[in-house]
UniProtKB/TrEMBL annotation:
Species of provenance: Kushneria phyllosphaerae
Keyword GTP-binding (UniProt): no
EC number, as in UniProt: 4.2.99.18
SUPFAM superfamilies: Glucocorticoid receptor-like (DNA-binding domain) (SSF57716), N-terminal domain of MutM-like DNA repair proteins (SSF81624), S13-like H2TH domain (SSF46946)
Domain Formamidopyrimidine-DNA glycosylase catalytic, first and last residues per copy: 2-94
Cofactors required: Zn(2+)
Domain named FPG-type: residues: 238-272
Top-rank lineage group of the source organism: Bacteria
Keyword annotations of the record: DNA damage, DNA repair, DNA-binding, Endonuclease, Glycosidase, Hydrolase, Lyase, Metal-binding, Multifunctional enzyme, Nuclease, Zinc, Zinc-finger
Gene of this entry: nei
Protein family per UniProt: Belongs to the FPG family.
PANTHER family: ENDONUCLEASE 8
Record-linked InterPro entries: FPG_cat, FPG_N, H2TH_FPG, Ribosomal_uS13-like_H2TH, Znf_DNA_glyclase/AP_lyase, Znf_FPG/IleRS
Protein name: DNA-(apurinic or apyrimidinic site) lyase
Length: 273
């Protein structure tokens, strides 16, 4: 399932073809939304944002289309005179003079006023989005040490979307490894330097995954593997999905455990077990 960086990349792609352009045609598959087609047709899209795994398509009258890809949803962006092929069912189409963005398969779609988004039953429970809400390492450090989160084990906390939206399973393993922390630690167990490093890695690793299409491994480790012709699955991550393979930093075999019912990969030497 895509994590925050992948959804942010979708928002970026959609923004390139929709933002600042007039929606000449719009189509909703669901009867409850069809009355809004006439309202949005002829308006300009102002921006396309992501918040966790949700997309927010904003219009000049301050209406926002909320959509969530759920498990099987996918956006298709193509020339306006083309239509998506395959077995997926179209749910939403936004068309400019030149392009169309189609949401396929997903059914979690609704229309909101921007000032009412804090009442949305899903968004209202989310923490800030690391890639959309101008989060800084100082913000993250303060949140880590807040009474709400400071007593939570890091392995569970990083997957909690109330903490920060968009961190998923591969990001969790990569963040903890690059911060040299075991999942059993709590923010309150960390000294100032460890907390600062963790805050920096939360933002740095998530940003790297966004910029490099899901790649979180450090360049110094991945480039020799790429040059040697190794497959992407071997060099994409520093520890995730690399059980029994040697740690890039120390050579110790990477281990895999289940934490919060999800796979977690770590180096038993680098992460202080």
């Amino acid at each position: 399932m895509p994590e925050g960086p992948e959804i942010r990349r979708i928002a970026d792609r959609m923004g390139k073809v929709l933002a600042g352009r007039t929606i000449e045609d719009i189509w909703f598959a669901f009867d409850r939304l069809k009355p809004f087609e006439a309202r949005l047709r002829g308006q300009k899209v102002t921006r396309v944002d992501s918040w966790g795994k949700a997309l927010l398509t904003g219009f000049e009258d301050d209406h926002v289309i909320y959509s969530h890809n759920q498990l099987y949803g996918v956006w298709r962006i193509m020339r306006r005179d083309s239509e998506p092929v395959g077995n997926r069912s179209p749910r939403l189409r936004l068309s400019t003079a030149t392009h169309s963005a189609w949401l396929m398969s997903a059914s979690d779609i609704s229309l909101w006023r921007r000032e009412e988004l804090d009442q949305h039953p899903f968004l209202s429970k989310l923490g800030p989005d690391l890639l959309t809400h101008n989060v800084t390492p100082d913000d993250i450090g303060a949140r880590l040490q807040s009474p709400r989160f400071m007593r939570r084990r890091l392995g569970a906390l990083l997957l909690d979307q109330h903490f920060y939206a968009g961190i998923g399973n591969y990001l969790r393993s990569e963040i903890l490894f690059l911060a040299a922390l075991h999942e059993r630690y709590r923010p309150m167990d960390l000294d100032d330097a460890q907390c600062q490093l963790l805050a920096e890695k939360i933002l740095e690793v998530t940003t790297r995954a966004w910029r490099h299409a899901g790649v979180t491994n450090l360049r110094v480790w991945r480039e020799p593997m790429i040059e040697a012709g190794e497959p992407r699955g071997r060099w994409r991550h520093a520890v995730f999905n690399r059980a029994t393979l040697p740690c890039h930093a120390c050579g110790t075999p990477i281990e895999r455990v289940m934490v919060s019912s999800r796979r977690l990969y770590f180096c038993p030497r680098c992460q202080g077990t």
